[in-house]
Amino acid sequence: MRIATAKESYAADEGLFKTDTQRVWFGLLIAGLLVYPLGASNYWMFLAVLVMINIISTTGLNVLTGYTGQVSLGHAAFMAVGAYTVAFFDGRFGTPVLLNLVLAGTVAAGIGYLVGLPSLRIKGLYLAIATLAAAVILGFIFLNWTPVTGGLRGLNVPTARILGIEMATPDRLYWLVMPICVVMVLAAKNLFRTRVGRAFIAIRDRDISAEIIGISLLRYKLMSFAISSFYAGVAGGLWAYLFRVVTPESFPALASIFFLAAVIVGGAGTIIGGIFGAIFMTMVPEYLKLVATALVPWFPDASIYLAPVRNIIFGALIVGFLIFEPMGLAEVWRRVRRFFALWPFRT
Amino acid sequence: MAVSPSHSAAPVRPPAAALDVDGLSLQFGGVKALDGVSLNVAAGSITALIGPNGAGKTSAFNAISGFYKPKTGTVKLDGEDITHVPARERAKLGLARTFQNIALFRGMTVLDNIKLGRHAHLNTNVFDAFLYWGRAKREEMELRAEIERDVIDFLELDHIRNVPVAILPYGLQKKVELARALAMRPRILMLDEPVAGMNREETEDMARAILDVREEWGISVLLVEHDMGMVMDISDHVCVLNFGRRIAAGTPAEVRANPDVIKAYLGSSGDPHKAAVEEVA
Amino acid sequence: MAVEFIDVVETSLAGLGTGALMALTGVAFVIIYKATKVINLAIGEMLMIGAFVFYGFSAGLSLPIWASVPLTLVVAAIIGGVIERTMIRPLMKDNPVSVFMVTIGLTSILIGVVELIWSAEPRRLPEFLPSQPIIIADAFIPSKTFYSFLIAAAVMAVLITVFAFWRGGIALRATATDRAAASSVGIDVPGVFSFSWMLAAVVAALAGILVGSVGGISSAMGLFGLSVFVVVIVGGLDSIAGALVAGLFIGWLEAMVGRFLGGEFKLLATFSILLVVLVVRPYGLFGTHEIERL
Prior knowledge:
CATH topology of the largest domain in chain B: Rossmann fold
Radius of gyration of chain B: 19 Å
Shape of chain B: globular
Strand content of chain B: 15-25%
Order of helices and strands of chain B: EEEHEEHEHHHHEHEHEEHHH
Order of helices and strands of chain C: HHHHEEHHHHHHH
Strand content of chain C: under 5%
Number of strands of chain C: 2
Oligomer: heterotrimer
Structural class of chain B: alpha/beta
Distance between the termini of chain B: 50 Å
CATH superfamily of the largest domain in chain B: P-loop containing nucleotide triphosphate hydrolases
Radius of gyration of chain C: 19 Å
Largest sheet of chain C: 2 strands, antiparallel
Helix content of chain B: 25-40%
Number of helices of chain B: 11
CATH architecture of the largest domain in chain B: 3-Layer(aba) Sandwich
CATH class of chain C: Mainly Alpha
């Protein structure tokens, strides 16, 4: 059992980690991330990289939807923008990987800013529909701006290469994706320790009061759009290096639903929720594959049903969590922690 | 949790501002909500705006704080014309307000709600925020110390600072809204029905807090309130509206004796304010 | 390439045919929005599942049309009622964003169900409309387009009449205006909610049968809902008349753009219109402009 911890200064009370226990857990997590590749097969390395890419993207959407309260139906399109940017610059000019990723984030952020502009006039669900329109229009551009995007056939992406080291396989890409993921998640966490993040939450909770205390709604909504798209862009760029080809089919509309589901299932408006959601949602299809394989002796064509069952489960998770656990896995996690913090005195 | 506040620095006390509203008119469709209302809040005074239901008190508030665009009339803060300044800019000029139906950020803790009050005075940009290093961190630490000293201690909110506002009882939520307004470093504080729906004890607590604010911070207060006892007790100056017009203004004693005021209140029969009228008369 | 006049006329007529179906689906959307204030992103998928249920009865069980259609509508009503009762009602007191996201989840569920039962392959519905092409003046109109236009128009005429005069229609409008007030004068508000979803599911299923009979069915036909979405925004979320006018207009526009610019420009054109409307007149051509008060 842990008793409330006394703090000696405001700095300690405002810290990223409020207790020693949290610090230890974070240390263990980083250590785990460092030793994970030693024991993981190629398949598990691939999954780890994919999960971390999805964590970055989900965290981005969480900033916009979970924290600022603006639903985006086009998040996957911003990932696509990042992926195409990387494919274009690396393929055409062979620019360095880190520069490409920054460009991916920046181009996506710029477009996200534009997509946010209608929030000058509209809000709430109307804005969500505007993001849907933006995604459709972006999809059109990917398909038809052939000189840049390669049209229907898309673009091949060169191997990521840093300081002469080729990162063709997931076990090497891991060392590129993992640090970026950790840094971007911590940066997002920091954001909500300052006035900027507080302004986002204020807009979500009560936009009229936000205005009265001097928050420019337009400015912060646009900022939230830009940050969210930046995260999506970087994630999309890393995605391009993982899959090595980008086509208009790479990020279908359903992918936007995937990320919304990840935010909801994990817990909208908490950083840890975005992480849980991304892990959980990325692993669902993998569990399903396992189940399908196990069922083959009885149902030889079980694998045909994978895709539809996955769709049903994604949808059911969104609906189920919204109805029964609207705060998501993060809330479940909080309850578990609370249980152990008070254990064995209260159960 | 034991946080030891440091009381070293002197509190920042912005000077009180006077508010001069002149000939304010406001229309919704064909309804005249306000008809040439004038109103003065002397610097450092507590002024109350009263009137029967639908008299236009909240409309006047919304026009003064910049949510409604008045058709005619001017609003001046310490002589400076702010009629056309957008609502969010008025925050920076030192105009802070609370709402009749509490408008707190329900998903946040008391502390974060109060911190938000200072938003317009802070400078951290998004890049500083990502790093939370140097400037951003320093600013947050100063903010925390100031808020603890000037607002949380002052309004005795220490025990609830990390509680999400959504689960607080009504009276405390009202107090947190006052705290958030104070964090804005206002020069004039506008309170829309600060004690509506409160019991006797909570009302007295709030009344004392308002008096303390004037005493300690030296700022001006403009309040809309139905609780006549409280209005008459704490106000220096009272202004009465009826059907969008000002029908009386003066000290509580003068207003209480004004026949128009008595008529206005008695005229609106079947009104819950009959009880209040007995206190007026 | 010189654009021939007759080509323009024929394309326009075909576009109006599709437009009538968009309008009909738009009406289904508006019914739900008017009664429950829910923006139903899954309207296209409700249309799809209706079409597939009809396929199941008419092709799968080889039932005659006169039996398949009513059975389909009954099943659609049940599906609509179940959706409302299990997914929408529990969240009606929450904020509209949650309910909106539930309909996003619903989209995914319905697509999955259809693919699970009927696979993702495109299919054709049995022929049931007369196949003799219609010729008006010199313009040639495919018979299916013509008859589906007529049926859609008839259904909408019935709906509008019913809503204007029938007691239930008035209850629905009262609920739309103010739930608490409606409840206090004895209107069964949850009943109105259920009814509106069931009715919308029926109307959407009808539209699905017509859309499917013209262009075939597939698990991707919910995309039709995207255009319908534009229709209701342009027309105004709470306006049946808006859905009619905007439906015909968007249908016509897509046909013209598809014919003279290329099929890939269709969605671009509609969604550009959507963006313009959102920014210039967010409540649509005929929608109610609610004044925001504090």
